[in-house]
Design brief:
Layout lengths: L5 E9 L5 H11 L5 H13 L6 H6 L3 H6 L6 E6 L3 E7 L7 H8 L4 E7 L6 H12 L4 E7 L8 H18 L7 E4 L23 H5 L15 E9 L3 E7 L10 E5 L7 E10 L2 E3 L7 E7 L11 E4 L7 E10 L13 E4 L2 E14 L6 E4 L9 E8 L16 E6 L2 E13 L4
Parallel strand pairs: 1-3, 1-4, 4-5, 5-6
Antiparallel strand pairs: 2-3, 7-8, 7-13, 8-12, 9-10, 9-13, 10-11, 10-12, 14-18, 14-20, 15-16, 15-19, 16-17, 16-18, 19-20
Amino acid sequence: MAKEKEHLNMVVIGHIDHGKSTTVGRLMYDSGAISEQQLRKFKEMADAAGKGGWEFAYVMDNLKEERERGITIDLAHKKFSTGKYDFTIIDAPGHRDFVKNMITGASQADVGCLVVDVNDGVMAQTKEHVFLARTLGVSQLMVIINKMDMAKYDEGKFKTAKTAVESLLKTVGYKLEEVQMIPTSGLKGDNVAKKSENMPWYTGPTMMEAFDNFKVPEKPTALPLRLPVQDVYNITGIGLVPVGRVETGVMKPGDKIIAVPGREGKGVYGEIKSIEMHHEQLTSAEPGDNVGFNVRGIGKKDLARGDVIGHTDNVPTIATEFTAHLVVLNHPTVITVGYTPVFHIHTAQVACQITEIVKKLNPATGETIAEHPDFIKNGDAAIVKIKPTTSLVIEKQSVIPQMSRFAIRDSGTTVAAGMCIDLVAKKLE
């Protein structure tokens, strides 16, 4: 049997209508992940709906409602292979209401592909997505300057868009020498899987080739075990089976574990009996593994979504308060001290209060603009102090970055995102 390829999760980001779904659909087709027959079916559906040319988008937008509205709502997970890697594509919706999905999507992504329409250039959501991707730890990025067919494959237009994107990426801290920029037409297939004959001036890689230039991030196996619980099942004859994704560290059968905060905020102790993934028993679970596991010593009422499992000799941190680097994305007015929205941190959702706005920062450089401002608004970055209303597990970015990131939601929209840079830990009795 051939050695399994390394696997990468890729989030596709960018402004609405810049051609994300079409490009991804084209990629899936050109790489053989979908067949001629399937594409023909999508084409018939697109034509029947009066949306000729949308067939590639249909590959990704396979929810009926999305086809009718022509926009991407849910995160579609699709797989395709290059010479070197197996990729899972997380198609992050460009639409405002769906930034929440983008956040849950990007937090699982190893690498990102930013799609920019050569004719529109950098738009509001392009900025927002790039900033989010950076804040949420997507460290490797490639950029495709799309719809080159609409710009008559003009090198000058490509260069203009490229310069605008570069200055955006630089402001949020991406290293330009590590970012690949490719002129493409997702619709026509230029430079997606096949080299374009329409742009002889471009000598770099196609998208497919560029994917192989990504590096596999080190799995954080050396960090302490952290597994946020997604769901808890009680299975007859087996007992309690929590389900979740290992963020850091390694979990093995026989491990002595603690789940915190647990029902009373004091943590509950147990032992791992067995671990399963895709109905197979595992001898160990590593970062990125979505597993179900059977625990001895923990009852149904002791454990819930949002609890975090760690080893007893390195207990996950419950923060009584924490300091965060925050970016305001989409708040209807301004954020002031006393604001108490819902924070989404790993699988937990907890109301937290902003108790102090320490300083406002220049989002591009991180320099302090103002000490203790009265408020912060859209586009601002700031250092803030936060107090959770109930027990919450979070870690410092410098210690376990995978457990430091969060999104803030308010009345159905994502208003801010950030990461924990310092905290006051609660001592467990």
